[in-house]
Amino acid sequence: MFDKFREGGGEMVEERIEENVNSEESVESTSTVESVSEIGIGELIGKRGKLEEAIDYVGLMIKNLKEKLQKVSEYIEEENRGIKELANKRKRVEDEADKVGIIINTLRDRLSGIDRIIDDEGNRVKRIKESRETLDD
């Protein structure tokens, strides 16, 4: 391993030169990285600000949507109450209509009874007239 250093003593010097070149490159790259990272940090800060604005905007939109949802829910509840009231009124009207129908049928039955009585009395009157006519003859 050390044989190459013994044979050509200049190689070790070349390696030191390469180390210096590498260290200079690393210093330059470090300063470049620092300036790039500073630029990157600035961009990130700008993006963070935009994100905060976007989050605020989205939060406001969500708040507005919740308010609209609340209003729609209240409207739906009001409509449902109205529908229930109408259904109850309809039920009462149907019940009253059923009662009126029963009364009408009862009155029809009574009228039919009266018609029978009238027919019976008419037939009786005819028989009486016929019997008088036969007695008169």
List its salient traits.
mainly alpha; 2 helices; 96% helix
Notes on the protein architecture:
The chain has helices at 3-7, 10-136. The chain has 2 helices and no strands. The protein has one domain (8-136). Mean pLDDT is 82; it is low at 4-16. The chain is rod-shaped and about 145 Å long. With 137 residues, the protein is mainly alpha-helical. 96% of the residues lie in helices and 0% in strands.
Number of helices: 2
| SSE topology string | HH
Helix content: over 70%
Query: How many strands appear in the DSSP assignment?
Result: 0
Approximate shape: rod-shaped
| Approximate strand percentage | under 5%
- Summing up helix and strand content along with how strands pair, one would put the structural category as mainly alpha
Largest sheet, if any?
A: none
Give Rg in angstroms.
Answer: 56 Å
Tell me the count of domains: 1
- Round the mean pLDDT to the nearest integer and report it: 82
